[in-house]
Write a structure and sequence with these properties.
297 residues; Serine Threonine Protein Phosphatase 5, Tetratricopeptide repeat; globular
Length: 297
């Protein structure tokens, strides 16, 4: 088995075939034979074994095996951060702090970036594990540390991705507490903020889409319309992104329906349908149909 086959196919089946994938990862861990591969490998193994299977001791053991093979240079720092997360979630906070110290020590420039990356990822895992109060406090502290820096950090992209995923996971819950609502909004706002630092225009308009969905879910439909419109403006100013434009119009349709604006609802939904019809990817069509049903009832 090749490394790319293991990881790429792994992400496509990590949620439906978690146990089988975990066995494959353990059997073929030697394929993660350099730091960049180890980073990708541990992102998959932690998510599959730790998050989906709820077996963080097993995820920790695998992470320790992979990291032990790496040369102790700056490229290994993110892998050590992933090890620290597995150790913390497995209940060994001291080992986690030691691994994080090693990760920070390996960085020649911006050592704070290694800490921010590790802490934001750990905060997300805590929230996903139901430890909302701890996760929220750690997330806010890590984001605050990133914001306090006067320069663009190497971790800014990781902060944007993790914030996006955190908000999206909370958005998908059937019901949320007020505290979860507050964190969902905070994470969506942070995702946009850090994508503006570390991403491109597509990341920006997708961040606006997420904010539109979040505000719709919170009942703030005027804000949802504003973010959907902003996303469409970003696309119009930079190029073409038919699928994203369809979903932004769908978000606007949902907001306008909730506001009782039938004219805007009809216009936005018709435009979304028109754009979605241009897409040839059946997976995207199915996703659109699912989201459309939520909007159109």
């Amino acid at each position: 088995m090749e490394f790319n086959e293991l990881v790429n196919n792994g992400w496509s089946r990590h949620d439906k075939q978690s146990a089988a994938l975990a066995a494959d990862l353990e059997q073929h861990s030697a394929l993660a034979d350099d730091a960049p591969k180890a980073v990708g490998f541990l992102a998959l193994s932690n998510h599959t074994i730790g998050y989906h299977m709820k077996d963080w001791p097993r995820a920790r053991k695998l992470a320790e095996t992979v990291v032990a093979r790496l040369n102790p240079d700056h490229a290994a720092s993110p892998a050590l951060g992933s090890l620290a997360i597995a150790q913390f979630m497995a209940g060994d906070e001291v080992a986690a702090l030691a691994s994080e110290c090693r990760a920070v020590a390996l960085i020649d420039t911006q050592p704070v970036a290694a800490m921010v990356r590790c802490r934001v990822l750990l905060a997300s895992e805590l929230v996903d594990a139901g430890r909302l109060e701890e996760g929220s406090r750690l997330y806010q502290a890590a984001i605050g540390l990133a914001r306090a820096q006067d320069e663009i950090l190497a971790c800014d992209r990781a902060v944007a991705v993790t914030s996006n995923n955190l908000a999206s996971n909370l958005l998908e819950l059937a019901a949320r507490t007020p505290e979860q609502d507050a964190l969902m909004l905070e994470a969506a706002q942070a995702a946009r903020e850090f994508w503006l630092k570390a991403g491109n225009w597509e990341n920006e308009e997708r961040a606006e889409y997420l904010l539109a969905l979040v505000h719709n879910k919170l009942g703030k439909h005027d804000d949802a319309l504003r973010h959907a419109a902003r996303g469409l403006e970003v696309i119009a100013a930079n190029g073409e992104e038919v699928v994203d434009e369809a979903f932004l119009n769908l978000a606007a349709a949902g907001a306008s329906r909730a506001k009782g604006d039938h004219e805007l609802y009809t216009r936005s939904l018709a435009r979304a349908d028109e754009l979605a019809a241009e897409c040839a990817d059946q997976g995207v069509k199915d996703w659109y149909a699912t989201e459309r049903a939520k909007v159109a009832g």
